[in-house]
Amino acid sequence: MTTGSRRLALLAATAAMVALAGCGARTGNPVGAATGTPSAAPSPAVATQAPDPTADVNAVDTQISALDSEVNAADAGMNAQETDPAQ
Amino acid sequence: MTARRIARPLSVLLAALAVTVTLPGSTLAAAAAPSPCPSGERLQCIKTRSATAVSDRETTLAGLVTIVDKAADLTPSDRTALLSLLHADETGLTQLEATIQADTTVVKAASDAAKIVTAYRVYVLAVPQVHLVVATDRIGAIDARLHTLSGKLQAAIEASRAGSEQKAQARARLADFDTQVAAADRDVDGLSSAILSLTPAGYPGNRTQLGADRDRVNDARVHLQAARADAHAILALIKPAT
Q1: Which of A65, B21, B34, B240 has its CA 20 to 30 A from that of B15?
Q2: Which residues contact B218 (CB under 8 A, 6 or more apart)?
């Protein structure tokens, strides 16, 4: 092999390695992130939508109703009379 | 008279009966005035009535223990304090009942029987104490939920497609909502400790304090109801037009 052809072969091998490295970079982790599923990112419409507080309001309704029962039961006790069993 | 006209008073009567039956302990029995014991059978009469009085109170106390066990919003320290109070009453009444049954004189039996009322005050103190402490802690839990809800309502108002006037009204209701929640917070601050500090020995002198504590619970309840009305109004104001 002549010096010229050796240089040509070396140049071709270097070019091939550079090309492979480039492919590797594109198919590595960073590339995976770049080519990830687009739907994973929230759409602007979803991102700005506030959660519906209706369920929380209804839950509070239930708790306050239970509170009414407790206060009424306390009132019943406070209005009771205790008599001495010995009388 | 239509069937509906008959059914309504009937349902009211049934509801009243249901309330009477589900009251912890026998409030009606406690209120009924007994006839005097016959002079010749006084000792046995006192013992019999004492056994009934203790049994009724033990039933009430067992019901209160169940209420405490099931009260999801009770703080651990209040739950412990209430159960300690109730179990001490149960133990004390059982011992007192044994003492009365062993008494040999009318004077001693009458003196011991009076302690069923004066040393425990189950109906007039323990019952309201349990319900008021449970109510106080429930108010605390509701308050916590409403604090979180305030942020959600704020976000919902700003994200809604309601008109500017509706949004302005909703923001005003939210401001009132926050005011009401803060007022309820203040009403019950330190309240459960105050209620738990009341003792049978202090009764009836501490009845005024018990009434004031009950009023604080009710004030908080009124504030929570106002906050609830605000929340419903906000939801109506920002509800998308269909």
Answers
A1: B34
A2: A71
